[in-house]
Amino acid sequence: MSRDHRPRDGRALAAHGPVLDLGLVVGAHGRHAMIETPEGERVLCHLRGKKSELVVGDRVRWQRAGDEGVVEQVEPRRNLLFRQDEWRTKSFAANLDLLVMMVAVEPPFSESQLTRALIAAAAAGIPVLIGLNKVDLPAAATVRQRLAPYLSMGVEVLEMAVKADPDAALALLRPRLEGRTTLILGPSGAGKSTLINRLVPAAHAQVREISVALSSGKHTTTTTTWYWLDEARSGAVLDSPGFQEFGLRQVDAMQLAGLMPDLAAELGQCRFHNCTHREEPQCGVRAAMDAGRISPSRWRIYGELFAELSQTRW
Ligand SMILES: Nc1nc2c(ncn2[C@@H]2O[C@H](COP(=O)(O)OP(=O)(O)OP(=O)(O)O)[C@@H](O)[C@H]2O)c(=O)[nH]1
Ligand SMILES: [Mg+2]
Ligand SMILES: [Zn+2]
Fold first, then answer.
1. Chain CA centroid to CA 291, Å
2. Are 221 and 228 in contact (CB under 8 A)?
3. Is 69:18 a contact under the CB 8 Å cutoff?
């Protein structure tokens, strides 16, 4: 029988015969994963053989083995959001429609980490928007200014106060989340889990009190978790642990400018076709920086990233 044969009920035939069910990975830990069946049943599975790790959002083919299950195949991914440093690759989630980068007025966030996440999403072809949370706090105006360059380059910035004014936050976000799979990403303490709990009251995601969050380096949320937004299971939000490091080793240094919308808009004007936009004379990107069309902070982050990505890889 042909291996490509797929009966209409969505089941697939494995190479050696058994019928495999389709499952969605809603939680993953090392070689174990919680998968959800199309009927909504959740089954703990482990991965057969030495396959690469499962990622939340993966579609898999699996079969039962007693109370648990065995994942036999991972379906091809539409996209994968990940970070990569010299030593390892860390996947956030697969098959996403949208990334919401959540930052807050407090605790202060690193613009470099924000930029890195946006670049990783651009490299993976995932649309992004920025959620600026806790605008009820006094420093909101200052932080709004920090995000102005992102607005000008065409990234949507949604201001919210998830705890102080949940209704307004939900009204803003719900239309953008409907029918989509959205990963909520951002530094620890930004309010990702607070938002998830408002969007999905049954979620009961753990939220940490701000005093504790600020005084300790630990994250409240420790694994990425899938939550359905509606009973029809058409839209989902994924809570994730806060991140500190965000390596971009998957990006080629020469591709970097093309993945940063404000720099990308200025490409093609440089004297040298292989310009790296740092020291070269008659550089269009540098000229745009001097003319105020690229912010000094973005310019600095570009230079740092370029240097980091041009280092020899082992
Ligand atoms: N002032 C203010 N505080 C908020 C708001 N939204 C959330 N917080 C507080 O921010 C703190 C951190 O919230 P969490 O939801 O745990 O943050 P998180 O992003 O999930 O953090 P990790 O799980 O560690 O990555 C909590 O004390 C929340 O009550 C808001 O709109 N205004
Ligand atoms: Mg959390
Ligand atoms: Zn240049």
1. 32
2. no
3. no
Note the ligand closest to the C-alpha atom of 185.
1
Alpha-carbon span 269 to 261, nearest angstrom = 15
Say if residue 215's pLDDT is above 50: no
Decide if 25 contacts 149 (C-beta within 8 A).
Answer: no
Ligand 3 center–CA 124 separation, angstroms:
24
The minimum-distance atom of ligand 1 relative to the CA of 241 is 25
Atom number in ligand 1 closest to CA 186: 19
pTM > 0.85: yes or no? yes
- Of 7-21, 235-249, 289-303, which one has max mean pLDDT? 289-303
266: its two tokens: 């200025």
pLDDT of residue 56: 96
Q: Tokens 């036999």 — which residue? A: 72
Going by CA atoms, what residue is nearest to atom 14 of ligand 1?
191
Question: At a CB cut-off of 8 Å and minimum separation 6, what does 229 contact?
Answer: 177, 178, 199, 200, 235, 236, 237
Residue 5 in this model has a pLDDT that exceeds 70: no
Tens of pLDDT, residue by residue over 38-63, are: 999 999 999 887 767 899 999 999 99
